[in-house]
Amino acid sequence: MRAMNMFRDLSAVADLIELCFASTMDNDGQRYVNDMRRASRDDGFLRWASNMTENASMPMTGYVWEEDGRIVGNASLIPFRDQGRRIYLIANIAVHPEYRRRGIARILTQRAMKYGWDKKASALWLHVRDDNPGAIELYQQLGFKEITRRATWVAKTDPPSLPDSDIQIVPRHPRFWLQQQDWLRRLHPDVLGWYRSFNLNSLRPGLMNWLYLLFVDVNIKQWAAICGDRLLATLSWAPRGGRSDSLFAATGIGTDEGGETSAEALALLLIHARRTLPNRSTLSLEYPAGEMTEAFLAAGFTERRTLIWMRAQPATRNDPLRK
Ligand SMILES: CC(C)(COP(=O)(O)OP(=O)(O)OC[C@H]1O[C@@H](n2cnc3c(N)ncnc32)[C@H](O)[C@@H]1OP(=O)(O)O)[C@@H](O)C(=O)NCCC(=O)NCCS
Description:
Low-confidence stretches: none
Number of strands: 12
Strand order of the largest sheet: 1-2-3-4-5-12-6-11
CATH topology of the largest domain: Aminopeptidase
CATH architecture of the largest domain: 3-Layer(aba) Sandwich
Radius of gyration: 22 Å
Bound molecules: coenzyme A
Oligomer: single chain
């Protein structure tokens, strides 16, 4: 095991990630691997990035495992800030299929954790698909605890037609904001705020925000589903320049008495968005796993994956490499 050398290793690490994640890699993942390859060929970028290892989102810091001169294992560290505190996302843990179950991933992850603790991180995070029990087991053994599960829903087929309903779809009115904000706070918990690239406050009504959005040239569209004067759900769309998670749905918990109506309202909003947004053949959004499933299915979405977000904190660390 040794520290990754981005001048030499980036391309081999990209190959390893592509091989190890082949069965689950989506377009975003493929773009990420391609970006790594492109970066590996760009000396100027690498020189710049080598001075930026604590700030870049590319995996510039990390550890690799070599056998006979060939990289067969990897663990990357991606730095983030959470209200001034340092956080690392440990990512791209991958071991070549021929070298598995020899403890390589465990040692690489432990080494990455030690790096984080040495840098005085307030927390280490990682995410893992819920259908990857081997990796989940490994991370639990190393002291990571599940914090939240989030499903990614994607729309691929043609949108269904809008069914008849007493629920009306209207533009999001400023008076809906307090309720919408309450829902958004539960559905997009602050604990993951450091990772979100979209500031949910951009959905807030008001002149200042409107001017800001005009300035940054982001054209957000928002709708509300109402029944009489009762707000049931909201949906917001922001173009994200190629990234697909541009829908933000908000509604109450779907399991109470009003659950059916919330789900119906959300489904109508999603269908409406799919039918009215320009040139959107695919749309996707994140939502807490297991919630509003029927609404997403009714609007023609399918579940792409569920990620378990896990966190280790200094108090829970269980890292034998640490003195
Ligand atoms: C997950 C992965 C990194 C594990 O690499 P590895 O080097 O084989 O893992 P280790 O040998 O260090 O395993 C350590 C422990 O994790 C658990 N574990 C790892 N892989 C497992 C599997 N396939 N099934 C069950 N448990 C597993 C076991 O508890 C294991 O200890 P044991 O071998 O003493 O039982 C590797 O299988 C891989 O690259 N998978 C594809 C990419 C991936 O899913 N990465 C994780 C993304 S979050």
